[in-house]
Amino acid sequence: MNLEDIARKAGVSRSTVSRVINDDPKVSAKTREHVWEVIRRENFTPNPAARALVTRRTEIIGIVIPTVENIFFTDNNYFTQILAGASQMARQNDYAMLLWLGELTEDEERLRQSVSNNRLVDGVITASLTHDHPLFKRLLSLNTPLVMIDRPLEHDDKISYVSVDNIRAAELATNHLISLGRRRIAHITGNLSIADAQDRLRGYKNALTQAGLPVDPDLIVPAFFSRQSGYDAMRQLLPRKPDAIFAAGDTIAVGAVQAAHEAGIRVPHDLAVVGFDDVDVAAQAFPPLTTVRQPVQGKGAAAAKLLIDLIQGRVQAPQHILLETELVIRQSCGAKNPLKG
Questions:
Q1: Same domain, residue pair 189 and 318
Q2: What is the pLDDT of residues 289-335, one digit of tens each?
Q3: How far apart are the first and last CA of the chain?
């Protein structure tokens, strides 16, 4: 069965069948429905390669995770949730998804070449790509639609992205600790090459300043989004005797709690702790972690939907989408959970 067979059975030209399959707006609604009725009756599947020649679209989107470590060698499910949301939205829109994972040991030039020279995808999503990553500038130079998950540190006025209001969320987390009577509130940052980490640091400082509390540089420790980094940062903070920690990520917070326990510091009695993300490790921690919940899977879905809209011309770049966050109260901060009475 081919286009000529469908055209003959529908009583129209082959070009009309092609226009129907490729959503040409010049075809009348009556003809369109009639042709699709024949296609369905004959169980005909249009050739995607031939369709791509006409539409100049492959109906495949690409998603780039900078390193394999972010997927397979981490103790949280942040990136797997991103992928789950993106793939579900792609399927709902009849798109396939091509995943690129950066290698841990090989020269990243191979990744840059693979992504930038690829003609199989209609657009690209990147997740947590640092502004100094060589792939960042390469992607900016392409004519392919691009959506970033999380705000870029540079050119944010030119790039479409999906994120949350990290400044406001960090203010909420820090204000919660202030409301509990904590005054020596430390902050363990994430990777400061990523806008999320810088914005969370800024929100932390804003909350202290607005409360009339000093911003003490000795209570701010730069780190990365990992348990080990949080553990090492907490070891640095121990001599400075903080009474609370706002960590830029849940895995950071879990590492900090481990270091505190080893030093004989009780959480939350001696040290209140708040994280960020609400990934699986937060509820599984001991004690369970108070944290800022962001819709991680929703970010993946929103990024895929936005990219498909850009590809199909329904919206024009740049588009900026901010999703809502909420503070989830658990035992690590010492506050009574209002939902549990």
A1: no
A2: 999 999 999 999 999 999 999 998 899 989 999 999 999 999 999 98
A3: 66
Q: What is the pLDDT of residues 261-293, one digit of tens each?
A: 999 999 999 999 999 999 989 999 999 999 999
Do 195 and 274 share a domain, yes or no? yes
Q: Which residue has the tokens 């540089």?
A: 217
Kindly list the strands in the beta sheet with 320-323, ordered across the sheet, starting from the edge strand earlier in the chain. Answer: 96-101, 60-65, 123-127, 146-149, 160-164, 320-323
The one-letter amino acid at 161: Y
pLDDT in tens, 32-73: 899 989 988 888 776 655 555 455 567 889 898 876 554 555
71 shares a domain with 40: no
183 and 140 within one domain: no
Beta strand pairing status for 220-221 and 160-164? unpaired
Other CB atoms within 10 A of residue 329 CB: 19
- Residue 132 identity: D
CA distance 121 to 144: 9
Q: Which residues contact 20 (CB under 8 A, 6 or more apart)?
A: 27, 31, 32, 35, 36
Q: Are 102 and 67 in contact (CB under 8 A)?
A: yes
Q: What is the span of the domain harbouring residue 141?
A: 60-164+296-323
Encode pLDDT of 101-125 as tens digits: 765 444 555 555 555 555 678 899 9
The single-letter DSSP state of residue 217 is G
Distance of alpha carbon 37 from alpha carbon 261, whole angstroms: 67
Residues making up the chain, counted from first to last? 341
Cβ–Cβ contacts within 10 Å for residue 132, how many? 10
Tokens representing residue 55 in the block: 């539409």
Omega before 217 within 30 of 0, i.e. cis: no
pTM, entire model? 0.79
- For helices 3-10 and 14-21, what crossing angle results, to 10°? 110
Query: In terms of DSSP H, where are the helices of the chain?
Result: 3-10, 14-21, 29-41, 48-55, 69-72, 78-92, 109-116, 134-140, 166-179, 195-210, 227-237, 250-262, 280-284, 296-311
